[in-house]
Every structure is written in structure tokens, then in C-alpha cells.
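Session log. Operator J.P. requested a structure for one protein chain; no other inputs attached. Running the standard single-chain path with C-alpha cell output.
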Amino acid sequence: MAKRYIDQFMWGYQDIFRSALDTEVGSVFKAIGFHGNPRTTLVGFQVSGQHAFKICIEQGETRYKPSDLENVQRLADQKYAANSDSNSFHSDPRMNESFHASLKNRMRAEALEETLSTLSGEEERVFFAGNAIRVGDYAVHIVISVDRQAVAAVPRISTVKRDRFRIHPSLFHAVTSKTLGLAARSLHFPDAGASLQVLDASPGEIVRSATESMIHALLYCAGYWFGSDTHLLMNSLSALPYEGREGAGRLVLAKSDNPAINVIVSLSRPIAAQNMLAVRKILEASGPTADVLFDGENVYGLGTIKSTYDATTESVFVVTFASRGVWELSHAGVALLAVRDGIPSLPTYVLDETYFIDLVERLFPQKETDLLLAAARAAGDHRHGAMLVISADAAGEAQRLSPQCWSVRPAPLTPELITQLTDMDGAVLLDPRGQCHAIGVILDGEARGEGDPARGSRMNNAVRYLGSDSPPAIVVVYSADGGIDILPHMPSRVSKEDVEQAVTNFLDQATRRPPDFESAYRAWDVVKSLVFYLSQAQCDSLNQARNELEEWRMENNGMQVGESQLKPNAAMNDTYWF
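Structure written below.
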């Protein structure tokens, strides 16, 4: 069996620690619905002893060299000198020393983030570095990096600091911070990584704790300092029935003296958050003309958010209770957090406009894309679920389905009218130019073993309709619980060159001897994500290279990783290329 050898040595289990952390970080991000190709790296700065490397990097696949980071400490010193807190003084010597040591540590973490992001080939990555922990002769920073585009797509606020208090602008940032903190804590233990575990907490536990930190920070933005249990209150309110009815309504989080709040009904005796039954009862009074007003500690009345609210202040937040166990936290109409049955995640109840436009472009030669997109958005303002159907032969389908719908004289509809019409049972039927041909449409079609029994009738009716001999069509389904489906589900169009590059990259990694297994398996994951687009020849080459890689591992390491063989998809054709 091959021997393990660590070139840039900090401690004996550093490679196992990083590899285990890499896996755990992926699981935590997956739990909130974030997919950004996360990678972990350990960077150690020598603080004592004599070693060959003053900077050590544990990274699995080789991307960075110690010389890439030789200016980090100099940049950190500059950041510390420029930071206003560097002038702070504490009368207690130990507290003063601890404060400034922590500030210098944070400045080096920020300098490390900044330096890594400027390296060649890393422009499309975002780096998050935790404060260093002393391990042996090195101060070790844990770094998590993710795809920049994935982070940009995460809904967030702009505030990251208020009154020296750190604000988590999104659930992703809160989870990343919590993960870095737990990973850093594990470095305090002897032989960190020897147990093959790092975080010592399940993904669910980490996400719930991060959610608590995030909401606490947002309440601080709203003017309340002590909001650590607020997420538990929201979970309880959403699950607590009132006279047999499930929780529904809106709770506005804002101080009573916030100039953006119009208090219509002011309670002479505010309701404490601990009085959950009373809070649940008054939630029944919320509606189109007034919401329940909550300052983080008490419900103080009913009112509204003024239209003049300056969203840049980020001081007013809204909790919307959609159904039993389902609630959402938002700011200025942008959902920041979605919770279902106590499980937090990034909001997924957002229309995938990129995919919708892609389907329109592929299915309809002549279309008015902007009008169709506006209609799809308007249907999303429903009260209890909605459906929009865009058919290449809307006129013919309106006549065919007329016994179970109202066909209308073709005409464009305003977004407001589309919202109003989708509140009625049945779909609104449009043609590719945005003209309405029917309302109250009930879709037909034969059951062919497709669909999902866990989903409602709207979704399954749409699946049956598209699975029959209907003209080319797009169906947008808004479920009452907030889910959104755009049918048909078709693989996105991709660049042929990107697929060929992914294949070439894996073949290159798989044929290296000795192989870099981490790089090879990462390249394999990319290939598997593109399996729909692979030809028979590409599948054969990839399968052979993977088999040879595992044979080498068995001969030299006494183990191998099993993997199913790649097969071409019969549905693949040239329409899936850009």
C-alpha cells in the first residue's frame, strides 16, 4: 500500500481533516439548496519553530503555491493599521491584548480572502476565511470558496455591519460563518481529523443554528437587540391552528417609532411574544389592509408599511405565513429565507425566468417573450395557486377544451387582469404572442405513469396534458404551498465546447500516474452532471478511463471506488446545443 506523504506539513491529519470538511461543507450547503461547487483549503502561517515552509497550504488538488500568499501578512498589517478599531484601548491588559490579537487575526483572514480572489483562474470564485487557530507551529485559517455566480443568485440584504455588530446578509452567509466557526473549534482538539469528522453536528443542526443567528442579526437591523428565539416563535405560529384554521397572514418586524410604519390600530397593552396563543389569535386580524406589527419583543398593533419606506435603510422585515408549517422572511418584497416544517432553506419559490425564456425561445418560432414573461410573473401573484398555459395552437386548444372552459375573443391582458383571472379555478390560456384565448381551462390528458402522487391536481393535470398529443406548450404551475413548476422539464441548452472540455479534463486527470484522485473525482462529478449530452464514443472513453483509474487504485492502494457506467441518452439531439 502506498505511503502517505505530506509535503507542506502542519500536523499529521491535515489532509484527512480537509477532505472530511470538504464533504461535510457540501452536505451543509446542499441542505439549504445552495449549489456552488464548494471547496475547502487550509492555510497555515508559521508562528514558531524552524520549518521548510513559512506558509503551508493543504488543498487536495494543487491550485495555489505558498509564494502566491507571501504578501498576505503585509496586507493584513495594512488593514489593521487602517482599521479604526486598532486605536481602541482596554484598561485591562489581558482584554486589550486579546482584542487586538483577534482584530489582527481577522484582518489576516480578510487579506487572505482578498489575495486568493485575485489569483489567476480564481476570478469566478468567492472566498470566506475563518480566523486562525494555533495548531503546532502554525496559525491555521480554514477557507471555503464557492462559485461567484451562485453567491450572486442568493437573495440578500446589503448591510453587513451595524454599530460594530456583524450582520449576516443571507442564509448562505450565516451558514458559511457557522460552518467556519465549528470547523475552527475542532482544530483545538488533538489530532484534528483523526475521527474522520470535523463539524460534529448534522447539516440540519448547523442550518437551524445559522438561521437563529441570521434572524437575530436582522432584528438588530430593525432596532431590536435580543431576537435569538424569534425563529422558534415563527415556527410555532405557523404550526399552531386557531379554531381549526392553519396559520396565515403577515407579521411586520419593525420598531413602533420607525417612520416607515403606519400604525392603524395601537394596542394599549402590547402582547408579549411569549404569549403565543394571543399572538396567533391576533394574526387572524391581518389582511389586505393591515398587518400585525411586531418589534421583536411585543406585538404592538396593526398597520402597514408606508409606500415611502426607504429600502436602503433595511430596517423593516416581513414574515409571511403561507400555510401550516410554512413561512417566509422577506425584505422589500425579496424573500430571504423559506421555512417548511421547521426546516430552513434558501427561497426556492421564485420563477426561474432564465429557464422560462429558454423554453419560449426553443418551442415557439414566433413569440413575444416579454409579454409572456410578464404574464408568468403576474400569475405568481395568486391567492391560492394558479396555472398559466402557453400553447402554439391556443385557438385550436380553446375550442377543443371549450366544454370545460370559457373561450374568449383573442386579446392581450394586463398583468393585473391575469392575476385576477388566475384566482379562479382553471388555467389562463395564451398564445405565443401573449393573446388570451380561454380562461378557467381544465387540462385533459391520459395518465401514462408520469406525475407525482405527492403533488396536487394542477401539477399532475399539466403533466398528463403535456404527455398527450398536445401542440407544443409551456405550463407554469403555482402551487398553493408556494412551489413553482415550469413544464415541460427539459435539459437546458449547453455549449458543445463546454461538454468536450469536461470530457477532456477528466481523461487528462484519470490518465496521470500517480493520479490526483481528488481532482479526478471532481472532474468526474462534472462529467456526470453533463451525462445527458454525452455521445456513445464519449461514454466509452470515459468509462474505460474510470475503470483503469480504479484498477490502478486497487493495485497500489488496496481499495477502489465503485461507479456505474455512463450511458448516452436517446433523447439527446442537436436542439440541446447553443
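Operator note: The longest helix spans residues 93-117.
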